[in-house]
Amino acid sequence: VDVPVDVPVGAHAPGAVQPAEAALATVRGLTRRFGDRTVLDGLDLTISRGEFVALLGRSGSGKSTLLRALAGLDEEAEGGLEVDGSVAVAFQEPRLVPWKRVRDNLTLGLAAPDPTGRADAALAEVGLADRARAWPLTLSGGEAQRASLARALVRDPGLLLLDEPFSALDALTRITVHRLVLDLWAAHGPAVLLVTHDVDEALLLADRILVLDGGRVAHEWTVTAPRPRHRDHPDLLTLRAAL
Ligand code: ADP
Ligand code: MG
């Protein structure tokens, strides 16, 4: 099937084309069915290098399904999918292996020179240098989530997929981890695709916001600077109206 290439999704001007070298991830006509249920229905998406994208959508709209496909964890997804570089994922629950110490969770399956040195550097970056030999179950929620981010980071991903990584954190810890994610993003420059159900969080963190609905990217915004902080900001009203 000939899928139209470089057709931008959502609100881009018709005919606008992303320069090919900027595209890190290209998804064309991605379809995922579970039995007779079509969850992703010919979804198109382009993510540029270094871009911070937030993905909103109702519960069950297929956000995690899309992330699994992007991570290469779904062999049954149909359609075109290309990612130029490595992909790492952090989930809502940190999913650390409980019987391996924090550092060993980071080096697990890590094919790089000096894995221990890399792991310790990543732990230091997320403020967990002193927890390298701790057992995962002794970490607080915020610490476990930071360890999970370090585990993603140590793989030096071109694309970092975050599936509701903040939703289990209390409000104050969440602010700290927001800051951390922005710092890591600025320092390492991966493209980030963040799934969240929090509109304010999306507006705070992302350059571009997508809404998944009906198995496709149904709405798309580029967040205008300065960041919308006021609840009557037009971006916020448009976004809320679409949800
Ligand atoms: P979201 O992350 O947006 O909440 P999901 O991607 O987890 O949604 O799920 C989208 C839909 O696909 C849901 O209705 C879910 O029940 C269904 N689904 C996801 N994974 C499976 C699976 N392995 N088998 C059957 N149905 C699934
Ligand atoms: Mg989900």
UniProtKB/TrEMBL annotation:
SMART domains reported for this sequence: AAA
Check the record and name the PROSITE patterns matching this protein.
ABC_TRANSPORTER_1, ABC_TRANSPORTER_2
Named from the GO MF annotations, one term is:
ATP binding
- ABC transporter domain: from which residue to which, for each copy? 25-239
The answer, when asked if Transmembrane helix is one of the entry's keywords, is no
Tell me which Pfam families the record gives: ABC_tran (PF00005)
Q: Which UniProt keywords apply?
A: ATP-binding, Cell membrane, Membrane, Nucleotide-binding, Translocase, Transport
Protein name as annotated: Aliphatic sulfonate ABC transporter ATP-binding protein
Native source species: Microbispora bryophytorum
- What is the primary gene name for this protein? ssuB
